[in-house]
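Please supply some protein, with fold tokens.
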Amino acid sequence: MSKTMPKTSIKSKPQRKMPQKSSPDIEEPIIAHPMERVIAIVYDGMLILALLFLVGTVLTVIGTLLTMQTGTESVQAQSLPNWYQNFIMTPSFVLTLVGFYGMFWRRGGQTLGMQTWRLKTVNNAGHLLTWAQSFKRILTACLMPVLCVIIGSLIGGSRAVILTSAFFGFIFNYIFCLFNRRGLAVQDMLSNTITLKMPKVAQEGLWRGFRNRKKNR
């Protein structure tokens, strides 16, 4: 009789893991260059001007209906009262500006213009800004332009001088970056915030940042 050979279980050899290639050095965020920051502000400026124009139009219509008597001839045209312009319209423009930047900075640290250049604004701890920090940053960014406007009004007082002074104060905020050891702007130092240039691998889209922040709540 033929004996049946016992079946032996064949064990597969353990597969050797292929050695993983060492990943290249990960690029880290750096302080944003002042020129890129100015260009991002110019990008955002077009949207901000559209918002301010919309707010100004709505408030002008409301102010005309509430405070002035409308006539049928051009000689009867009047201007809005000073109190309405100073205490209603001007604060509304400021709140529009704060709301624009505050909404984007709190959600993802980036406005539309900043996202184009991979810029991101955070506080010194690396966290997204709060409403209070956003307001403080905007307020300190306006400090030098307002100071230059006051000086310009004392020197000349014309509209051209005032606008030129405001522009010089705005540019000074970013010229200051070239002389600061860390490359910080005036508003960065005064508000304890910083604007970074993000690497491509760490760049998060604006709308994805909105969604991720909602999920984490």
The mean pLDDT is 83. The first strand starts at residue 30 and ends at 31. The first helix runs from residue 34 to 67.
